[in-house]
From TrEMBL:
Highest taxon of the lineage: Eukaryota
Gene Ontology molecular function terms on file: cobalamin binding
Gene Ontology biological process terms from the UniProt entry: protein localization to lysosome
The name this protein goes by in its record: Lysosomal cobalamin transport escort protein LMBD1
Membrane topology value: Multi-pass membrane protein
Family statement drawn from the similarity comment of this UniProt entry: Belongs to the LIMR family. LMBRD1 subfamily.
Keywords: Cobalamin, Cobalt, Coiled coil, Lysosome, Membrane, Transmembrane, Transmembrane helix, Transport
Annotated TM spans: 28-48, 83-107, 127-147, 174-198, 290-309, 351-381, 393-413, 448-468, 474-497
Coiled-coil segments: 246-273
Source organism per UniProt: Sclerurus mexicanus
Location of the protein in the cell: Lysosome membrane
Length: 528
């Protein structure tokens, strides 16, 4: 099963990259890097449902462990999943801080200097060294941040340093990796607010509304061409008797000539699309697209309402900013928290739902990046277009997806915290929460509340491995909390904008006056 899923992911990544890759500027190294990074992103997102399933599968419905799930076996399963997270998160760090930047800068140097390959590699390594330095700093900070070290006034400096190394050794590097991943997750949160929130509103509504007719657009485009040509003739008629054109007329003439070239490119694209088999196929499955659009908008609303109620619960009942808005149990029930326990009764409906939400989060992120393009603040760097996307844009797309995937686990945890921690496990003894302050337990953080679940202490329930990466640092949890509010706000704004906008053009993004892609004037091979 896992082999089939892995093969399906690789095939999807290859098709997706080849679909959007520029036919004229394709490079082997950038193609392989994009496919690999995209596959890592999808595999990492698929590990969360697997983690939840494994901790749930070790127990019976009556709360007892299964015969085969003794202490050693359960520990081996936990370690296997943990090593899986170690491996995938380490690969993500490698891609984000080393491989993708190196390939990007190598390709940039190749465009400027086609001669010396050695010089291109050296220059790419020089720029990549900055990313490696940032990664090393994050790992060192995460490795030696004293989270659980008692503050003894009479201890020497050597004893404190020795205690730091002992803590690092006892955690097997988990704290260092967790800090680095959490730092990237904050960046992924910003990317999710920008791209995923918009994609969740734009994708369903675009499917429901559809696109304008190619024949109708072609008719309008022909009328525009005739109008521009008549305007050009009127301006050129002014200089027939040998008089020079004024500076204003020359500027207008240049603008009209550029406009005419753009309209003729649109004419070629529209003619190609109107005759293509793909357009006829899309028209045939139009009812199916509407059904999918309605389904996606329902999932998006379920996701947003659940996230709003979860955040509202934290705002009203959490221990505050200094605790990272840790909440002691669930006081406001959200739709997803209500739905998952019901679906647990019929295997494997709950895992199908959580997998659907994770995959929906990833694919709406892809849709958001595709619709908006790659931006640096207010500057658009690249566009994502079928058959015309530059290699640098694909590398940026894959890096953004890697960062968004890191934030996915916390988003799902915000929606259903108990389910993400324990899955569908049940326990035999009725217990209550124990609440204590970190000061009572000798921790250095002041007034930081937390809770301990008795079944976990008594080995009655096994916590998922993904939870170990989520709440090691309270300040990251606080950032995620405010990020969730921003996500909800951007989704609502995107939903209003998408509802007010009309149908998309059938060649949306294919031909634009301000197009920065080098392949702007080539006819898309995708439609042939």
């Amino acid at each position: 099963l896992f082999r089939c899923v892995f093969q399906a992911i690789l095939i999807f990544c290859w098709v997706y990259v080849r679909k959007y890759q520029s036919r004229r500027e394709s490079e082997v190294i950038s193609t392989i890097t994009a496919i690999f990074a995209l596959a890592v992103a999808l595999i990492t997102s698929a590990l969360l449902p697997v983690d939840i399933f494994l901790v749930s599968y070790m127990k019976n419905q009556n709360g007892t462990f299964k015969v085969w799930a003794d202490a050693n076996v359960s520990r081996q399963i936990e370690d296997t999943v943990l090593y899986g997270y170690y491996t995938l998160y380490s690969i993500i760090l490698f891609c984000v801080f080393l491989w993708i930047p190196f390939v990007y800068f190598y390709y940039e140097e190749k465009e400027e200097d086609d001669g010396n390959t050695c010089s291109q590699v050296k220059t790419a390594l020089k720029y990549t060294l900055g990313f490696i330095t940032i990664c090393a700093v994050l790992l060192l900070i995460g490795a030696f941040v004293p989270l659980d070290i008692p503050n003894k006034k009479n201890s020497t400096e050597w004893e404190k340093v020795k205690l730091l190394f002992e803590e690092f050794g006892s955690s097997h590097g988990l704290t260092a990796l967790s800090f680095s991943i959490s730092s990237l997750t904050v960046i992924g949160m910003l990317a999710a607010i920008t791209y995923t929130a918009y994609g969740m509103s734009a994708l369903p509504l675009n499917l429901i509304k559809g696109t304008t007719s190619a024949a109708y657009e072609r008719l309008e485009n022909t009328e525009d061409i005739e109008e521009v040509e008549q305007h050009l003739l009127r301006i050129k008629s002014k200089c027939r008797d040998g008089r020079p054109l004024s500076s204003r007329d020359r500027r207008t003439l240049k603008q009209l000539e550029e406009r005419l070239r753009t309209l003729r490119r649109r004419e070629r694209h529209l003619e190609s699309i109107e005759k293509s088999w793909w357009t006829k196929f899309c028209e045939a499955i139009r009812p199916l697209k509407i059904v999918w659009g309605v389904f996606f908008i329902i999932v998006a609303l379920l996701f947003t309402v659940s996230l709003f109620l979860s955040n509202l619960d934290k705002a009203l009942h959490s221990a505050g900013f200094d605790s990272g808005f840790i909440i002691l149990g669930t006081n406001l029930t959200n739709p997803l928290n209500m739905l998952l326990p019901v679906l647990q009764r019929v295997f494997p409906l709950d895992y199908i739902l959580i997998t659907t939400i994770v995959m929906y989060f990833i694919f709406t992120s892809m849709a958001g990046i595709r619709n908006m393009g790659i931006w640096f603040f207010w500057i658009r760097l690249y566009k994502i277009r079928r058959g015309k996307t530059r290699p640098q844009a694909l590398l940026f797309l894959c890096m953004i997806l890697l960062l968004i995937v890191l934030h996915t686990s916390y988003m799902i945890y915000s929606l259903a915290p108990q389910y993400v921690m324990y899955g569908s496990q049940k326990y035999l003894v009725q217990v209550r929460f124990i609440v204590a302050t970190y000061n009572q337990l000798g921790d250095i953080f002041r007034s930081y509340m937390f809770f301990i679940l008795f079944p976990f202490i008594l080995d009655q329930c096994i916590v998922t491995r993904t939870y170990l990466f989520l709440h090691k640092f309270w300040f990251f949890s606080a950032a995620y909390y405010f990020g969730n509010w921003a996500f909800i706000a951007v989704f609502l704004i995107g939903l209003i904008v998408s509802c007010c906008k009309g149908k998309k053009s059938v060649i949306e993004g294919e031909v634009d006056d301000d197009d920065s892609d080098m392949s702007d004037d080539e006819l898309s091979v995708y439609y042939h």
